[in-house]
Amino acid sequence: MKISGVDIRPGNIIEYEGGIWRAVKIQHTQPGKGGAYMQVEMKNLIDGRKNNVRFRSAETVERVRLDTKDFQFLFAEGDDLTFMDKDSYEQITLPRDLLGDAAAFLNDGMDVVMELYDERPISVQLPDTVEALIVEADAVVKGQTASSSYKPALLENGVRVMVPPHIASGTRIVVDVYSQEYVRRAD
């Protein structure tokens, strides 16, 4: 489906110069002279390269629709992650760097959504938030106010996050997978 260059939105998948790209950030600019354009920061979904491109309103790009399929994470072996198709029970192994920092939050049996282009896995989407156990939390420094101070804490998966002062070691919390930030205390 063709769309105008100024209609690109963050998260859109487009075909550009023979590659498949995800729009990460956009900025609409209307200079005093000349026509308006859209400055788009894009990430190549095949090789991970980043690119900044200006699209004028007269330019069109091909918007790509990716197929999505439900998979279940089975296990990690070195830098390889193994997933199982929930419909056909076929297993697929992908490199850890396809998921980036979010790979640290994978748990055995976790349901994920895989995006495919021409039957080839392009990206894996985890749930937005997961529960994690704090194994180590720094002590609160006396005199800090609770309203704006956070302290570092180490999660069971080795990820460091900033948490409010009242959160102690051994507490289960909810963490945003993609920003790696504390959301709330788990129920």
Q: How many DSSP helices?
A: 0
Q: Determine and state the CATH class of the largest domain.
A: Mainly Beta
Give the class from helix and strand content and strand pairing.
Answer: mainly beta
Radius of gyration: 21 Å
* CATH structural architecture of the largest domain: Roll
Overall geometry comes to flat
Q: In angstroms, what separates the terminal alpha carbons?
A: 44 Å
Mind describing the biggest β-sheet?
6 strands, antiparallel
Oligomer: single chain
- Give the overall pLDDT as a whole number: 84
Total strands: 16
Strand order of the largest sheet: 1-6-2-3-4-5
Offer a concise description of the structure.
This protein has 187 residues and is an all-beta fold. Helix content is 0%, strand content 53%.
Throw out a few tags for this protein:
187 residues, mainly beta, SH3 type barrels, OB fold (Dihydrolipoamide Acetyltransferase, E2P), 53% strand
Could you characterize what this model shows?
This protein has three domains: 62 residues, SH3 type barrels (Roll); 59 residues, OB fold (Dihydrolipoamide Acetyltransferase, E2P) (Beta Barrel); 57 residues, Nucleic acid-binding proteins (OB fold (Dihydrolipoamide Acetyltransferase, E2P)). It is built from no helices and 16 strands. The strands form three sheets. The chain has a six-stranded antiparallel sheet, with no helix packed on it. Strands 9-8-7-10-11 form a five-stranded antiparallel sheet, with no helix packed on it. A five-stranded antiparallel sheet has the order 14-13-12-15-16, with no helix packed on it.
